[in-house]
Design a protein that fits this description.
alpha/beta; Rossmann fold; twelve-stranded mixed sheet; 12 strands; signal; AB_hydrolase_fold; triacylglycerol lipase activity; 36% helix
Length: 456
């Protein structure tokens, strides 16, 4: 296996210990640029989505040119041996078995101890509507966080860039190793890093230590930005830790993370010229519009009200798709829905505060309009953020999915796979029968490890 060059390292200055933690390293140095950057000329063609000029946010340490620059990193967990890593995974599985979420044994091949680091780095926000004009002309630099977990082995390791599923609270993010609070992070970190991969997982904007609210849910551009900028930052930290990586780069995404993983793969392959070895997803959402309409049509699964409401609130933040919540949500929820997505509530708290179905959560007039009009502004924006059309994945993509998935319909996944393959993609579904959404994910990760190993 050929070692990958440290081509993404940025020039840094001094290293100094954080005042609050002996394990935390602050990396300081000059950015590649300063100030707010050029503003678009109103006489020119409209700025393309995702290509708006990047500007510094007053009070933020990130300047123009600093994307992917490491601000600090600190060790937040360590498991000295494979036995300790397995014990962390077993603790998670035991807790969530007792809570009724885990129904099947998870057979992971944990072989290594693991050291985990929370990384703070610079990325960029989506272009938000100007409060005065409503125009979306600039993207502000932003601070984000993510997890870097390194297996305790002497050999060079391949990277798995992990994209987590839906979270509605700051603390429920991969960079938090607590199994009581963080759902995706602990099991995915122990399975992938414990199997010998370097694990890199963005929290996304609005989660972890990112101060932005709400999280930019199902916004493909910011998902890809936070992931690729963390990948660049992780390369710097790996160099500082003297950890060698191979040239193989694998992506994994669960649920919303399936959407984020394909957005990231598209960005890496089509814009950054980075080779992806393979991508695996579990219960992945690829067509945001189709997923939203499926949420409205399903009146039996209470969590779908959260997903439908979340994407509406997030898209209004990014695009300004409605005038007021009273236009969109039923009276019982119009006054509280934005507060529910302040990133301070737990998933269960949000579900309990909304109606038992997505349809009941919405105002009848809005439901009729959005479900009956394919050109409704909300649906247009959702189509713009789909990741299953308009490109051909260069690397193979395998989606682990169950016909019994209660949250992301198996038929929706089949439609997206067919769309991705129309242009010549190598995208497949591996069916896992008899599993719900969460248990499909837990069974998919060890299977992805085996598939990735065979492709190294």
């Amino acid at each position: 296996m050929k070692l990958a060059p440290l081509s993404w390292l940025v020039r840094v200055g001094t290293l100094s210990l954080c005042l609050m933690s002996a394990a935390c390293i602050i990396i300081t140095g000059e950015g590649e640029g300063e100030g707010e950057g050029p503003l678009p000329d109103p006489e020119e063609e409209p700025v393309v989505e995702g290509r708006e000029p990047e500007v510094a946010d007053p009070g933020s340490p990130c300047q123009v040119g600093d994307r992917g620059v490491v601000l600090a990193y600190e060790k937040v967990a360590e498991y000295a041996t494979a036995v300790e890593t397995q014990a962390q995974l077993d603790a998670f599985l035991g807790l969530y078995t007792d809570l009724g979420y885990v129904s099947h044994p998870v057979e992971a091949e944990v072989q290594y101890g693991v050291d985990s680091y929370r990384v703070s780095y610079c990325t960029v926000d989506a272009a938000l509507p100007d409060p005065g004009t409503g125009e979306r002309t600039r993207r502000k630099l932003a601070v984000a966080t993510g997890m870097l977990s390194v297996p305790r082995r002497s050999e060079a390791s391949a990277v798995v860039l992990y994209h987590h599923g839906t979270s509605v609270s700051y603390d429920d993010a991969p960079s938090n190793p607590s199994i009581e609070v963080s759902f995706d992070g602990p099991p995915s970190s122990t399975i992938f890093a414990g199997s010998g991969f370097i694990y890199v997982a963005p929290d996304y904007l609005g989660l972890g230590s990112s101060p932005l609210t709400p999280h930019r849910y199902f916004h493909a551009g910011s998902e890809a930005d936070s992931a690729t900028d963390l990948l660049k930052a992780a390369q710097e930290v790996l160099g500082d830790l003297e950890v060698a990586r191979t040239e193989d780069l694998f992506l994994f995404g669960f649920s919303q993370g399936g959407h984020a993983a394909l957005a990231t793969q598209r960005r890496l392959e089509e814009e950054l010229g980075v080779t992806v070895t393979a991508t695996a997803t579990s219960g992945g959402v690829f067509d945001v519009e189709r997923f939203f309409l499926s949420c409205l049509a399903n009146e039996e699964v209470a969590t779908l009200a959260l997903y439908a409401s979340y994407v509406l609130v997030a898209y209004d933040t990014v695009y300004g798709v409605y005038g007021s919540t009273a236009e969109v949500f039923a009276p019982a929820y119009a006054g509280i829905v934005e507060g529910l997505f302040d990133m301070e509530h737990t998933f269960d708290e949000v579900v309990a505060a909304l109606a038992p179905s997505a349809r009941e959560t919405l105002a009848p007039g809005f439901y009729a309009a959005v479900s009956g009009d394919a050109e409704h502004p909300v649906r247009v924006r959702m189509r713009e953020n789909g990741v299953d059309e308009g490109w051909v994945p260069g690397a193979p993509v395998r989606n682990y999915h169950s016909p019994e998935d209660e949250e992301v319909a198996y038929g929706d996944a089949e439609a997206s796979v067919a769309a991705l393959n129309e242009g010549g993609g190598a995208v497949t579904i591996e069916t896992l029968d008899g599993l719900d959404h969460i248990n499909t994910w837990l069974q998919a990760m060890p299977r992805a490890v085996g598939w990735f190993r065979g492709l190294e």
